[in-house]
Amino acid sequence: MIVFDTHIWIWWIHKAKELTKRQVYTIMQNEERTIGISAISCWEIAKLVAGQRLHLPFPLPEWFAVALRYPGIRLLPLNPPSFLENFIKTRLTKSSWPPPEFTSVL
After folding, report:
1. Which of 34, 48, 54, 77 has the lowest tally of Cβ within 10 angstroms?
2. Is the pTM of this model over 0.70?
3. What is the pLDDT of residues 23-49, one digit of tens each?
């Protein structure tokens, strides 16, 4: 299994030129296996669209319906304890914790 980062998933769905030939080949080889999409990628895309930093060719619910039906795509559940532990260690500083999106969860 390979797991797409959010931007790779967007680029793959939109056949963006940012993907290298090697990346396209690797993805195509895994379509018959599994291409993992983290549930957090759905949240990231929704935030980008809401903030007008990403413009999709059709409404978000339709985009997700199409994007999640691509060959090999499997939505991976978010494991909150593991996710939060890794997120804290690798991406956040003390001054940015908790982000507003997590305050209702904590």
Report:
1. 77
2. yes
3. 999 999 888 888 999 998 999 999 999
CA dist 7 and 12 (Å) reads 8
Give residues with Cβ within 8 angstroms of 106, minimum separation 6: 98
Torsion-angle region of 87 (φ positive above 0: left; ψ -120 to 50: alpha; else: beta)? alpha
Reported as a single tens digit per residue, the pLDDT across 60-93 is 999 999 999 999 999 988 776 665 665 666 555 5
Asked if residue 46 lies in contact with residue 60, where contact means CB atoms within 8 angstroms, the answer is: yes
What does the block give as tokens for 69?
Answer: 């039906």
The kind and range of the H/E element at 71 are none
